[in-house]
Write a structure and sequence with these properties.
Shape: flat
Helix content: over 70%
Strand content: under 5%
Number of helices: 3
Order of helices and strands: HHH
Oligomer: single chain
Radius of gyration: 15 Å
Distance between the termini: 37 Å
Number of strands: 0
Length: about 70
C-alpha cells in the first residue's frame, strides 16, 4: 500500500532530520562531524570508492551513537 509506504518514509525522514539537527547543535559532535566529512570528501576526490564507503558508514554509525547517547 503506497499510503503505508509514504507514512514510513515520512517518519524516517523526520527522524533523520531530528538526528541531524541534534548532531549539528552538539558542541562535542560538530568538530568530529566536520573531520568525518573531510575524510569522506578526500576519499571521493581520490576516487577511492571503498574508502569513501567505509568513511561514510563510520560517520553514520558515529552520528547514530551520538544521537542515541544524547550527546
Amino acid at each position: 500500500n503506497s499510503r503505508t509506504l509514504k507514512h514510513i518514509l515520512v517518519s524516517l525522514h523526520q527522524n533523520a532530520q531530528q538526528a541531524r539537527k541534534s548532531s549539528l547543535t552538539s558542541p562535542a559532535r560538530t568538530p568530529k562531524s566536520l573531520e568525518e566529512h573531510k575524510e569522506i570528501y578526500a576519499a571521493l576526490s581520490e576516487r577511492d570508492a571503498q574508502r569513501a564507503k567505509l568513511c561514510m558508514e563510520q560517520h553514520i554509525l558515529t552520528a547514530a551513537h551520538s544521537y542515541t547517547a544524547g550527546e
